[in-house]
């Protein structure tokens, strides 16, 4: 089955008009299915699900056991099989040592970012060096151009301007808890913060928040769904983005969407698939990652009264503690595709094999960190890789840190005493972004 | 002591200017910069070491002088 044969055609070919205004409008006239028609085919493999027999030879980050608690699995693998293998997803590898994760992150010659979500579909090789969601999916030298477009909007200074509105929003969420003894900190607090912030940056209607959640789950947790389902869900996301783009073309605003529509490099405006792909990246990666980091930090504090009390008594420790939460509960795992057959660190990698680049596993490698398996909230030396290493360092890391700091600071100030209401009711997202999705906390 | 940032390694994580804002700043794209001539004022050596030891890319070099 091919990717594009499943798309649904809606419109005929687009006629390119001669006037500038019309050109702007028509650059985004195609919908997702038609944009896909312009691309060469990718390849699919059989979807394999079900219990893992041996994590060293059959790993799957999409099984419930991994979602519930991946750390013992990773620690075990690091000792007995530091580069694990699976035949699922058409073949892939899982390095768990910091050293190997770092080496792969730095080696953009031999490992491609053409797709960073390990799934049962490999996009066509021709998609490199741009990829579907630049710059995260881009390889050098194109990568640098796509990345430089985004960097100025995401510096510490630029995101600092969003802090007052973020603080006010966190307060308003906690105001909404009035009268409740138990609140779901993942659903009613953590998820809303990054949704609102990135939605505002992109200039999307605030009431669309619930749709963003759907998009996030579809992209990152729907990896093992049948292909037609997955494409239909991707189509919902991209057609939503194209709708927003067209609205911004008609009504330009001071936001990232208008910025990307008007951005140029090499004297030309960006391809429509580049504009929409980058917006998809900002929306998806901007939400579930920080949602996960805020949730995991609150989960830790809810179950560790000594750390919670210490932070309430000494809020100045929060920036240091926050880095430790990012190390110990790093939400994000990336993926790479092997470019050519090669012998690498003792294993035989084949072209098009996946590599699951587990920053969470790297962050718990005892060869890199003292007391790697403990959460030490005053850890002074913390060279963690939660935001990646090398040229793909998370472009939103300063934004994520601002949101995480503000979210935790305000929560601890307003709700200094809280605990897990029912530890067994906590659920975690499966897949490459891991964080609590249900987190009932007793606050009253 | 003098601080240097290897621009070939720096990826703009910003740990240096978070942890030692008296010694490090950022450019328009968020990459780290050394403030002034990079000479670490007396008494600020621990801040410089803290920044260097938290750089995920190991991009900061501290050169002991004199």
UniProtKB/TrEMBL annotation, chain A:
It holds the Pfam family p450. Keywords: Heme, Iron, Metal-binding, Monooxygenase, Oxidoreductase. GO terms for molecular function: heme binding; iron ion binding; monooxygenase activity; oxidoreductase activity, acting on paired donors, with incorporation or reduction of molecular oxygen. InterPro entries: Cyt_P450, Cyt_P450_B, Cyt_P450_CS, Cyt_P450_sf. Coiled coil: none annotated. The keyword Metal-binding applies. It comes from Actinoallomurus iriomotensis. Belongs to the cytochrome P450 family. This is Cytochrome P450. The lineage of its organism: Bacteria, Bacillati, Actinomycetota, Actinomycetes, Streptosporangiales. SUPFAM superfamilies: Cytochrome P450. Residues 1-21 are annotated as: Disordered.
TrEMBL record, chain B:
It holds the Pfam family Fer4_15. PANTHER family: FERREDOXIN. InterPro entries: Fe-S_cluster_ET (IPR051269). Its cofactor is [3Fe-4S] cluster. The keyword Metal-binding applies. GO terms for molecular function: 3 iron, 4 sulfur cluster binding; metal ion binding. It comes from Actinoallomurus iriomotensis. The keyword Iron-sulfur applies. SUPFAM superfamilies: 4Fe-4S ferredoxins. Keywords: 3Fe-4S, Electron transport, Iron, Iron-sulfur, Metal-binding, Transport. This is Ferredoxin.
């Amino acid at each position: 089955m091919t990717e594009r044969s499943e798309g649904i055609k809606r419109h005929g070919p687009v006629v390119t008009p001669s006037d500038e205004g019309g050109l702007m409008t028509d650059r985004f006239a195609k919908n997702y299915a038609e944009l896909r028609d312009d691309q060469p085919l990718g390849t699919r493999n059989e979807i394999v699900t079900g219990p893992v027999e041996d994590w060293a030879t059959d790993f799957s980050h999409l099984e419930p056991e991994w979602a519930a608690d991946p750390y013992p699995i990773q620690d075990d693998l690091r000792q007995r099989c530091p580069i694990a293998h699976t035949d699922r997803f058409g073949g892939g590898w899982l390095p768990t040592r910091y050293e190997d994760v770092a080496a792969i992150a730095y080696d953009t010659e031999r490992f491609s970012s053409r797709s960073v979500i390990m799934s049962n579909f490999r996009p066509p090789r021709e998609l490199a060096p741009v990829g579907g969601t630049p710059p995260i999916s881009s390889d050098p030298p194109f990568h640098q151009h796509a990345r430089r477009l985004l960097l100025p909007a995401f510096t510490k200074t630029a995101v600092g301007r969003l802090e007052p509105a973020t603080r006010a929003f966190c307060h308003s969420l906690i105001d909404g808890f009035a009268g409740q003894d138990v609140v779901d900190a993942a659903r009613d607090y953590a998820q809303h913060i990054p949704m609102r912030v990135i939605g505002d940056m992109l200039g999307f209607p605030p009431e669309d928040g619930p749709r963003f959640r759907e998009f996030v789950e579809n992209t990152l947790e729907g990896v093992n769904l049948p292909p037609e389902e997955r494409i239909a869900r991707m189509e919902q996301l991209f057609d939503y983005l194209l709708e927003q783009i067209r609205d911004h073309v008609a009504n330009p605003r001071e936001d990232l969407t208008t910025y990307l529509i008007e951005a140029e490099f090499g004297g030309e405006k960006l391809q429509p698939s580049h504009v929409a792909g980058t917006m998809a990246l900002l929306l998806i990666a901007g939400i579930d990652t920080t949602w996960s980091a805020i949730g995991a930090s609150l989960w830790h504090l809810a179950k560790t009264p000594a750390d919670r009390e210490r932070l309430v008594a000494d809020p100045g420790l929060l920036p240091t503690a926050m880095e430790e939460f990012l190390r110990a509960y790093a939400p994000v795992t990336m993926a790479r595709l092997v470019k050519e057959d090669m012998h690498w660190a003792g294993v035989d990698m084949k072209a098009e094999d996946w590599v699951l680049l587990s920053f969470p596993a790297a962050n718990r490698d005892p060869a890199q960190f003292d007391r790697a398996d403990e959460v030490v909230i005053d850890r002074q030396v913390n060279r963690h890789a939660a935001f990646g290493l090398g040229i793909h360092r998370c472009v939103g890391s300063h934004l994520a840190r601002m949101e995480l700091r503000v979210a935790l600071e305000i929560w601890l100030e307003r709700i200094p005493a809280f605990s897990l209401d029912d530890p067994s009711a906590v659920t975690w997202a499966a897949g490459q972004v891991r964080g609590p999705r249900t987190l009932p906390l007793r606050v009253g | 002591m003098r601080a240097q940032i290897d621009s070939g390694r720096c990826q703009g994580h910003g740990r240096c200017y978070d942890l030692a804002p008296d010694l490090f700043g950022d450019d328009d794209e968020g990459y780290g910069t050394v403030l002034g001539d990079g000479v670490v004022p007396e008494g600020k050596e621990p801040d410089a070491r803290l920044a260097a030891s938290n750089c995920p890319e190991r991009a900061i070099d501290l050169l002991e002088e004199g």
